[in-house]
Amino acid sequence: MNTSPSSSSSAIPLSALPRIAVLATGGTIAGSAQDATSTAGYQAGVVGVGQLLAAVPALSTLAHIQAEQIASIDSKDMSFALWAKLALRVNALLATGDIEGVVITHGTDTLEETAYLLHLTVKSTKPVVLTAAMRPSSALSADGPLNLLNAVSVAANRAAHGQGVLVAFNNRIHSARDVVKTSTFAVDAFQSPEVGALGWVQDGRVEFQRGVVRPHTVACEFAIDAASTGAWPAVEIVTSYAGATRVIVDALVQAGVRGIVVAGTGNGSIHAALQQGLADAVARGVAVVRASRVGSGHVMHNGAASDDALGFITANSLNPYKARVLLMLALAAGGTGPAALQQAFDLY
């Protein structure tokens, strides 16, 4: 773990530039609208990776770029198949000797989920950096070009090695585990509310203020191949709120889900009627994880007094969407029983 600040801003001779793969998946960063003043009425994913790169000529001073168009979607429509394709391609690229890092352009809607999935399944210490935009490429003051420039700067920097999957956004560097989208419109939409950003990047200078502590990438037991060769374990999310019932839980159990993440109130607390439905789901072999809808903070394990008695797992500081990612991977890896699954949540 690297805990000391590190930075780099010196120019690199062209002959010594690293080779960085840029994988495009669509999103707002590749969006376009007829009106340059529109930041909402646009079509996502219509601008190709070549055009994205051409808008940032300074990239040629940072790295030799190898570009690929993996998908052209609005990230709200992210699928298991695309997750598998992306993870397998990243692993294949980083296994080669000439690729020194990967940058992924992505939509903001599900970026935090994709980033965390890769954080757990990429098997390399080389940098993987996701970036995106809150404004389409056609907008006045589009934020995509600078975010892309900064993401390549981070991926090309030696200090990014061994930090797991990163997100470069609005001059900040975040860990994939910690980062969440916190605004529907602001250009600083991504934050790490519980622990803060890892560092920053500006004008070519990259600085890490701290290192990543929890296991990731090569230190993880998860492999995307296990989930991609067969059906992904069905895991759904339900929410607790005033007057919640067990209707959705019962329907999900009847449909054959293997896991349920509940976005509870406060410290993952659950309405009594919903809690009874979830306890009955555990009795039928469904894994249940308590997370929180609050947006930050830890969901603490209550031990024998509650969670152990009910067979519930707690999500630690993972939000419900990242908890779903981890639960799917843990189940796909053969995790069974609350104790083994809780160990995964405590570790990762």
TrEMBL record:
Taken from the record, one Pfam family name reads Asparaginase
Q: Which Gene3D superfamilies match?
A: 3.40.50.40, L-asparaginase, N-terminal domain (3.40.50.1170)
Gene Ontology terms, MF aspect: asparaginase activity
Q: Which CDD domains match?
A: L-asparaginase_II
L-asparaginase N-terminal domain segment(s): 19-211
Q: Name one GO biological process term.
A: asparagine metabolic process
Q: Which UniProt keywords apply?
A: Hydrolase
Positions of the Asparaginase/glutaminase C-terminal domain: 235-345
Positions annotated as active site in the UniProt record = T28, T108
The UniProt entry's sequence similarity note says: Belongs to the asparaginase 1 family.
Q: What is this protein called?
A: L-asparaginase
